[in-house]
């Protein structure tokens, strides 16, 4: 599925996909350190490098999974530390629905199967049962501007691509950090950092149907305007 360090950059980017099913197999710390070292070559505003990575596995991760799930089932409002924004509408909502249909179709989850649909949602709060979770945070002192959030997005993209090149799968998600007090407690995240995103990470389970889903992308013609070019 992945894991060839001789892949070209284009092969990594075009081949990577979000992985939501993982093997029950630990990820060596040295592999994660290599992935992080590569990812941190990402650009940042004026080289501020505002990001921090909290790499969690084992018992602390199990406690986060348990706390997230218990709170959600108990109806505890989410408390994630970055703005959610309004619900998607128009073409953005259409894309959201389409990828959900792809995933539910791959997993054989019918529209009226409430139990399996709920379990699918809870997988996100469990960090998709991945052996590793990486929580990305940034320095609170930088929270009054948008550059640091942009920079964290850049390094997170670099992270999932670097992981793919080393055989690891990832899925960037928000469910895993919606109950931020749970995450902050068990990951030991200091108060001078803002929790931005979570990345589930591990060895992809090639038998997990949703891992084969390739989400669609806009064409260059749809996304880009070229100004001042001839022809």
Outline the structure in words.
The protein is an alpha+beta fold and 231 residues long. It has eight helices and four strands. It has helices at residues 9-15, 29-39, 58-73, 90-107, 114-125, 147-165, 180-187, 220-223; strands at residues 51-56, 132-139, 169-173, 193-202. The protein has a four-stranded antiparallel β-sheet, sandwiched between helices. Helix 2 (29-39) crosses helix 6 and helix 3 packs antiparallel against helix 7. The mean pLDDT is 94.
Tell me the Rg in angstroms. Answer: 18 Å
Largest sheet: 4 strands, antiparallel
Mean pLDDT across all amino acids: 94
**Between the first and last Cα atoms, what is the distance in angstroms?**
40 Å
Helical residue percent band = 40-55%
Q: How many beta-strand elements?
A: 4
Structural class estimated from helices and strands? alpha+beta
Q: Which spans of ≥5 residues are poorly predicted at pLDDT below 50?
A: none
Q: What amount of the residues lies in strands?
A: 5-15%
How many H/I helices?
Answer: 8
Chart the SSEs and their pairings.
Blueprint: H1 9-15, H2 29-39, E1 51-56, H3 58-73, H4 90-107, H5 114-125, E2 132-139, H6 147-165, E3 169-173, H7 180-187, E4 193-202, H8 220-223
Antiparallel strand pairs: 1-2, 2-4, 3-4
Helix pairs in contact: 2-6, 3-7
């Amino acid at each position: 599925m992945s894991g060839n360090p001789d892949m070209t950059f284009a092969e990594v980017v075009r081949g990577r996909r979000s992985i939501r099913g993982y093997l029950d197999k630990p990820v060596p710390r040295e592999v994660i350190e290599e992935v992080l070292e590569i990812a941190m070559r990402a650009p940042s505003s004026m080289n501020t490098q505002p990001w921090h990575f909290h790499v969690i596995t084992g018992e602390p991760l199990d406690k986060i999974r348990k706390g997230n799930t218990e709170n959600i089932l108990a109806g505890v409002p989410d408390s994630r530390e970055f703005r959610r924004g309004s619900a998607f509408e128009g073409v953005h909502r259409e894309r959201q629905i389409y990828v959900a249909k792809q995933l539910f179709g791959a997993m054989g989850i019918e529209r009226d199967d409430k139990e399996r649909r709920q379990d699918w949602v809870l997988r996100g709060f469990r960090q998709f049962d991945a052996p590793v979770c990486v929580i990305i945070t940034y320095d609170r002192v930088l929270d009054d501007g948008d550059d640091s959030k942009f920079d964290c997005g850049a390094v997170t993209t670099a992270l999932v691509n670097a992981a793919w090149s080393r055989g690891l799968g990832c899925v960037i998600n928000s469910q895993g950090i919606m109950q931020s007090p749970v995450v902050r407690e068990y990951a030991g995240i200091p108060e001078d950092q803002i929790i931005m995103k979570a990345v589930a990470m591990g060895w992809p389970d090639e038998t997990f149907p949703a891992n084969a889903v390739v989400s669609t992308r806009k064409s260059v013609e749809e996304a880009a305007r070229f100004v001042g070019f001839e022809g």
